[in-house]
Design goal:
The complex is a heterodimer of chains A (292) and B (338). Helices cover 73% and strands 0% of the residues of chain A. In chain A, helix 1 runs antiparallel to helix 8. Chain A contains eleven helices and no strands. Chain A is mostly helical and 292 residues long. Chain A has one domain: ABC transporter involved in vitamin B12 uptake, BtuC (Orthogonal Bundle). With 338 residues, chain B is mainly α. Chain B has one domain: ABC transporter involved in vitamin B12 uptake, BtuC (Orthogonal Bundle), CATH 1.10.3470. Chain B has 14 helices and four strands. A two-stranded antiparallel ribbon of chain B has the order 1-2. A two-stranded antiparallel ribbon of chain B has the order 3-4. The two termini of chain B are 37 Å apart. Classes of the chains: A mainly alpha (292), B mainly alpha (338).
Chain lengths: 292, 338
Amino acid sequence: MELLAHQVLAGLATGGIYACLALAIVMIYQAIHHLNFAQGEMAMFSTFIAWQLMQWGVPYWVAFSATIALSFVAGVAIERLLFRPIHDAPALSHIVVFIALFAILNSLAGSIWDYNVKSFPSPFGSRSLFGDGLMSSHDAGMIGVMLFMLILIYLFFRHTRIGLAMRAAAANPGSARLAGIRVGWMNALGWGMAAAIGAVAGIMIAPAVFLDPNMMIGILLYGFAGAVLGGLTSPGGAVLGGFAVGVIENLVGTFVPYVGKELKLTIALIVIVAVLTVKPSGLFGRSIVTRV
Amino acid sequence: MKQRPKSNLGQAQAETIAGIPVRMWGRAVMTAGLLVALLLPFAIKSFVIFQLTLAVTYAIAILGLNLLTGFNGQFSLGHSAFYGIGAYTAAILMDQADVAYYWTLPAGGAACFIVGFLFGLPASRLEGLYLALATFALGIAMPQLLKLMPLEPWTGGVQGIVIMKPEAPFGLPLNADQWLYYFTILIAAAMYACAVNLIKSRTGRAIIAIRDNPIAASAMGIDVALYKSLTFGVSALYTGVAGALGAIAVQFVAPDSFTFNLAIAMFVGLVIGGVGSIPGTLFAGLFILFVPNVAEEVSKGLAQAVYGVILIAMIYVMPSGAAGFVRVIVGRIARMWP
């Protein structure tokens, strides 16, 4: 029983990492209705920018804010420069551009900052909270930051005009345009926000997994799984999905004999797919009804 | 994530260039291409022949993916797994049972058809992104499964299996690379002919109807779940045969050759070649084999970035892939010289 509790706690700590990225993924999904394969690499690149600023002696919170602002601008710029010109290309072509963006960012980061693993500071310290080193103060701080972000996002989408406009633009671009909403700019804003949230996620994740150009690849997979499990239409669901994936992964690794350690990602994914066959729009997602 | 390219059946006949129907031009280009492909091995180095063999192999694999995505509207990020199953089936049969290489192709195809069909049964409940996630799980699982301890006597674990390259039969005056190239071309020709006929048949129309509107298709009496699963099986079969050919050409299989990166490469090829275009897959095979090498030659350190830039440029120039691009160009020429 104690082992179970410990593993759940450790799972929540890693789940927090996945939840961060799942949240960013859902944000961009809300805005553009695609899964952004380059999301993880965008977050990684932002984290490197924060690291570089700190190397130049900029204080932590200043670097933190500057990185978020820069990432927001970069996200908007990516939408305007890269995706605007091909906005009526087929959806699968967009995915290829995501893959291209992934390759470019990864390779650029590698050549600017090399592939050596770097440590990244945490504002919350790294004391162990419950003994045994299962959950550190950084893990707890990270979960706190993420929940705070979630509340901000909720307030933004529910209680501001621009949040409403963004939801309208994503739900029904045609009608939104007729109502006077600039749908193109709403998409760009969605990209910017996703990049900014990704930057926060990256800065929060980096102290736990260390900083290198490939840091996000594994996490991105889990983040996707969490986002899809929770339902791509629900930011809160995505966060819960991320935690769930972390816990499932840890429990599988501990309690499934023989194959548990090596196949934990696979088994976690199978569990998720099984859930999805029963509940095809995710645990908390709304199923979207379309007229035939 | 769904994509509905216009069906090009029946529209090409109407257009003519210089009084000759576009269809005839297409045949002429195909025949010329085939002739060049047949004569090429006498003009180039062995290594290039080997590369071309691999490119044709990839083209068959992407054709399999295209049958699934382009014609049936199902998305897959796990076709690297089928490529791997085909390759391992071939390698294990040749290594353990001394089966002749040409018999490993039907075996690899059959193994993949069964796995693909069984995977397609539950997957037919899932759509779009959810299907992508399920196939993605398959793609991630495959290298890990191949590394598993209990399977090591057959798969060779992380080390993989080394196999022998076949020599030309009947005393033909060809070296092993040339023979394998012709063998691959022969298999590819047969498989492309089958695919074209499949798509033109009643079954093919059912497959396309499911892509265009599953509800209308089921109202017309098509068993959507069965057809989706069967398409999954056939798609896996194509990719599995390609995997077996690839294993024979490379003479080596190892778990890390069949990672998610291969699935991504196949997907990129699919889109660059043209979703829902059968000839486009040939271009796709050449693209995913040669363009990463070109990128590497431009800049060693930034090879990936160069590759990404090339990809973006391709999508800008031809948003619907090479096939769509050719269609547009042909349409323009046809209007200028009808």
